[in-house]
Amino acid sequence: MNFLLATIRRELLLAFRNRSEIINPLAFFVIVIALFPLAVSPEASVLANIAPGILWVAALLATLLSLESLFKQDFEDGSLEQIMVSPQSLLLLSIGKVISHWLISGFLLALLSPLLGIMLFLPPIAIGALVSSLLLGTPTLSLIGAIGAGLTVGLRKGGMLISLLVLPLYMPVLIFGAGTVQAGVMGLPIGGYLAILGAMLVLSLMLAPFAIAAALRLSIRG
Amino acid sequence: MLSVLNLACERDNRMLFNQLNFSLAVGEILQIEGQNGSGKTSLLRILCGLATSFEGEIHWQDLNVQDKLSTYLASILYVGHHPGIKSSLTAEENLRWMQQLHPHLNKGSISEALQKVGLYGYEDVPCYALSAGQQRRVGLARLYLSNHPLWILDEPFTALDKRGVMEKEQLIVEHATQGGCVILTTHHDFELPDQRLRKINLDQ
User: Are the Cβ atoms of B86 and A77 closer than 8 angstroms?
Assistant: First the structure.
């Protein structure tokens, strides 16, 4: 437990020292959303229609973008090796890394999303659905993405491969995430959608850390 | 303490070494020699459990390492080519993390260790602002903190100045006299007064 907290503290400190790591996904999210009204149509009715999908796709891509660097530095400077030769478990490290990754990507994206929702004329009743779906969905994205990042960390150009590996697994999250917001727009109950997003989170929370640790072990042993 | 039986390692269809047998008693220093590419680093990575593609057995205190990996890992300190030092963290923060990883890394305080390696006054400087040699000294500070019985060091003398090399040599000898073991690779000629030093040449 101490080691888990120490990992999270260290990761957040590192992210704070290299602030571009935090800002890049957020900036990407904002820019993509800001371009849509210019390219499609500034009309409220059009934008409100496509807003749930755009917001979720942009959040998914922003998370994907930040994944490549998740283990890269640790692999290159020998930090991962040092963890492997220490008695501490790679499993706790994986969980700690994913939690801190989510805190600086998905969590901040969810906090920023109401503003962008308003920009796209998302009706105020759907803002709650947007934030809660992102809060429940993005941790799953981080967990699944970390498996891909762990598998490709030893490769020279792993970025493209990560997308190929994890995108298929992202689809259910995207469908139900955007579905939640859509239902919110129409004033339908969103409990069922959130329950499914929550179930996917619990499932990946149980299984992904083992897969991440195994993937890292594989990558380090070459 | 450590014994290696019939160790063989193959890489890209090339035999790096086979039929390698040696044992290391308390207080001994083992220097592994060999040309570039002769498998020195591979051997060290096998010895600390980072590589698993080998044949043969490694025993630590009469127990097979593969069966008791976590107890074994708790008693070794490995410093490789990439020492795992984060350039955006300060020397002190790096060492504190190392302490969190290794329960045996608690001999004395961090500030004392930094003072011993000549980094006093640099505690709050991020490592990217230190010179290459100073960064190696952060790694050296880890040895001052270590209580591990076995040290495995890959090229410990690169990028250190003459004084640094001398201090590190001294530290290694001291560790051996206090009942530890050291395995290291280096091209540097070790000058040791006694019979502690043993050598293995991987070219033969």
Answer: yes
Query: Which pTM was predicted?
Result: 0.91
* Closest CA–CA distance from residue A168 to any residue of chain B (Å): 32
Whether B31 and B185 have beta carbons less than 8 Å apart is answered as yes
Contact A77/B82, CB-based, under 8 Å? yes
Beta bridge partners of A15: none
Full residue range of the structural domain in which residue A215 is found: 2-221
Give the tokens for residue A222.
């070459």
> Number of folded domains in chain A?
1
Quote the CA–CA distance of A36 and A24 in Å, as a whole number: 19
Is B163's Cβ below 8 Å from some Cβ in A?
Answer: no
Reading phi first (left if > 0) and then psi (alpha if -120 to 50, else beta), residue A21 is in alpha
Instruction: Please report where in the chains the tokens 């994205």 appear, as a residue.
Output: A141
Identify which of B70, B74, B84 has the shortest CB distance to residue A82.
Answer: B84
Alpha carbon separation from B20 to A17, B9, B27, B39 (Å, rounded): 46, 9, 21, 12
Mean pLDDT of successive 10-residue stretches along chain A, which has 222 residues = 90 91 92 93 90 95 90 90 89 94 94 94 92 96 95 84 92 96 93 96 96 93 79
Is the CB of B78 inside 8 Å of chain A's CB atoms? Answer: yes
At how many degrees (to 10) do helices A106-119 and A90-104 cross? Answer: 20
By the 10 Å C-beta count (0-12 exposed, 13-18 middle, 19+ buried), A42 is classed as exposed
Which residue in this structure is represented by tokens 């060492």? B95
Site from A82, A88, A216, A217 to mutate, B interface, most B CB atoms within 10 angstroms: A82
